[in-house]
Fold this sequence. Notes:
Blueprint: H1 9-22, E1 29-34, E2 37-39, E3 44-51, E4 55-57, E5 67-69, E6 73-76, E7 79-80, E8 82-88, E9 91-96, E10 103-110, E11 116-126, E12 132-135, E13 140-142, E14 151-156, E15 169-175, E16 180-184, E17 195-199, E18 205-212, E19 216-224, E20 227-236, E21 244-249, E22 255-256, E23 261-268, E24 282-288, E25 293-296, E26 306-311, E27 317-324, E28 328-339, E29 345-356, E30 362-367, E31 373-374, E32 379-386, E33 397-404, E34 414-417, E35 421-426, E36 433-440, E37 443-449, E38 453-456, E39 462-465, E40 472-473, E41 478-485, E42 495-496, E43 498-502, E44 510-511, E45 518-519, E46 521-528, E47 537-541, E48 551-553, E49 559-560, E50 566-569, E51 576-577, E52 582-589, E53 599-606, E54 614-615, E55 618-623, E56 625-632, E57 636-639, E58 641-645, E59 648-651, E60 656-659, E61 665-669, E62 680-687, E63 701-706, E64 710-712, E65 723-732, E66 740-749, E67 756-763
Parallel strand pairs: 2-11, 13-20, 22-29, 31-38, 40-49, 51-60
Antiparallel strand pairs: 1-3, 3-9, 4-5, 6-7, 6-10, 8-9, 10-11, 12-14, 14-18, 15-17, 15-19, 16-18, 19-20, 21-23, 23-27, 24-26, 24-28, 25-27, 28-29, 30-32, 32-35, 33-34, 33-36, 36-37, 36-38, 39-41, 41-46, 42-45, 43-47, 44-46, 47-48, 50-52, 52-56, 53-55, 53-58, 54-56, 57-60, 58-59, 61-62, 62-65, ...
Amino acid sequence: MRSRTGMHPLALALLAWVLSCSVSPDTPRLQAVSPERTAFGTPERLLLSGAFAPDVAVDLGSETPPSLENRFEVRIGAERAYAVRFRSRDALEATAPATLPPGRHDVTVTDAQGRSSTLSGAFEVIDRGVHRLVFVTSMRAARPGEWTEPIRIELRDPSGQPAPTPTPRVLRITSDSETGHFTRLGQEDEAWRELEVPLALGESGVDVLYRDTTPGYHTLESSSHDLPSIAQTVAVGRLGPPTAVRFTRVPTSPLVAGEPVALTVDVLDSSGGPASLPATGIQLMLRTTSPAGGLAVSEADPYHPDLTLVLQGAQGRLPLLYKDTRSGAEVWLSASGFNRDTYGALTPHSVSLAVQPGTTQRFEVLRTGTGPLPAGVPERFILTSLDAWNNRTPYTGTVRLDTSPPDPGFSPGDVEMEVGMASFNAEFSRVQRVSVVAEDPHATNVRGATPELTIQAGLPTHLAVSPVVGPQLAGAAFLLTLEALDRFGNRAETPLSVTLSASGVPEGALSPTTSGSFTGAITFPVTLTAAVEETRISLVEGTATIPGALRATTGGFAVLPGATQRFVVEDTTGAQTAGVPFRVRIRAVDTYGNTTRDVHELELDAQGVHAHQFAPAHFSGFQGQADVDVTVLLALSSTRLSVVSGTAKGQQPGTFAVNPGPVARFQAQVPPCLTSSDRWKLGLQAVDNWNNAVTSYSGAARLALSPFGTISPSATPAFTGGTVTIPNVTWSDVAGREPQSCLELIVTDSEDARKTVRQCLNLQLSCPKHR
Length: 771
């Protein structure tokens, strides 16, 4: 049925509804976006809530009902959402593209008339971060010249889930086979020796194919910027039943003793290519003929001369490590196995390896003779170069020779070595237990030594006395070492006795005066009780009148006063002012009253004064005597200074007073709570910078309120004894402004505006009554 206008009634109704809605001034209006966030690289279907008025398509000359046309555009950040659908006047649907970069984005809805509504930061894209590369697929197999099944390489986040890349990157894929080629899935007509695949923003991986004409196991590697490289094996061949095992990777050059080398054992079919392993696997037995050799699957495993393993699934290739610690021209490795399904033996395989010595790690030094060695008599030695596993190395060159401990008369200083061997005659000049040391002059960590050898001495030819490290302290004993030496400087074994004397020292001030009998060397304590600027101790064998008597004299040294026993602290005359430094002299003395030279860390204190009101509390590097500027911040009638360092102490004999400093501000006492009608008591006290009461202050102060109100009186009477109390304080222009927890009372000196204080007044409608 048509209306008189010729329009369908439903079209009229819908048109009237749209016209009524289209006049709304606030459409479109975006109020919410759900969900509010998604992971990067994932498209997300969004529900947009708000107010939206769509366009209506009406064919006035047709029976076709009118239709709603979606004319809305949705943008998320700089990108346009797709699949926008009008659901109702209150909701739209749109899909956020997977290419949105991580971060928060504004969402904007624009209608057909160009009107827009934006919700700031309404949608967030979360970046999970790229952590590593992985081969998603396991080891692949293919016939020669044919493409493998797709090999998936993906970026993963720390939790192991696929992670879209937030920035463009390139995946590089290579093979260790010279005949291997790659292509991307779906591009089989193209083949590349190396494949570089660009990943666009939001992509998390790629599918590639591999083809190789050479049968065998081939290793594929993939890498990308700032990510660790990964590898996977591909088996190329007919993959027939297993018939043989073979070493397919063997070093062509000799092994180095003690260093592991990589080997590979493959299970092969009759064509010589990779075999298809039975369900129960292949039992593989590996063996070495070397008593010092061993095989391991990984670096963390122990090395065994016999190794038995089971290969299952697609594990037809076994990477191995071989290590041998004994050098040899020929070492045999064998591999054998049997099929655990059929128990049929596989054709074994053996290879020979040469093991050469490692780098020279040490020298072996051996003496040919026995018994003690007299100084100055040559002795024959043999020198051999060895690696870390005691294999003889072909070292050729100069080897430095020395002794430990050092012997200044030792010879020779070096020897020429040829093909790891040398011999030499050595002489010693010092009595001691000594080792002969051989050292590579170009690698100081390559060395060797003999066991300790005993060197004997000759007759004494002179005396040697240890130096006296001065200055010494009066009354403090110090050790003196005296040696009787042969012509090489070795301690002789002839018994001797010496007398002692000290220049410039009164009789009786030196003890002892004789060493007593000794052989070779003696160490004894010496004490000097007199302080002198310089003295020397002379030591003479027997008496000085004997011609040719052995003698020795120490170098000059001073004798200083003893250790500090106490401190003398000079008295402070007259009263001081708080905060004003005054000078005090402090002196450290020993038992005899001498000013000492010890360095002390002094702790200073003032009687009745807290540490934070006194400075300095510490004097670092004090020595002998010093004038210290002391500051006391507390005013008090009597105090005295004291010092301490360890067990040594000192104190002023007399006391002194500390007066307060000049007035700096006022301290106010006010009630904790006030109402606008209260009369209240105000107490003020004049204090200096350190809150000492200044009882001498007799001035007056001005009173004011901030930020509103006036106070009466507006000025205080003159202070008495540094304080003033106003019993009936009133205020005005504060009623009706309650509550005010901090109505500031400003107290300012009448003569000096810098002397001021601000005190909060608690203005309330009512205050609790206190009993």
